[in-house]
Amino acid sequence: MSVAHHFRMAVSAAAPVGAAPETAAVRLITLLPTEWTAAIVHCTDGAAVIAVAAPGTVLASQVEYTVDEIMRATALTGWTIRPIKHEADEKEHEL
Length: 95
What we know:
Elements: E1 4-11, H1 21-31, E2 37-44, E3 47-53, H2 60-70, E4 79-84, H3 87-92
């Protein structure tokens, strides 16, 4: 059974003008390993929350490492990402 890991992507000062969080989230999702699943949970101006699920044998630390490595891709320059550990963290960033 897979467990969803939530991440918040946010635009940084290095991002292109008008960078859309939906586009960045889709770019990240397309670079995940093929056996993983992911979905955009919601987007706001300058940020997106995504849920990433890996096969049950993959540890949370491995998911975070893989996502961090993907964020180094040129297509994601100007975006930052951090794992959301608690639901309260996610709600705090919806505003």
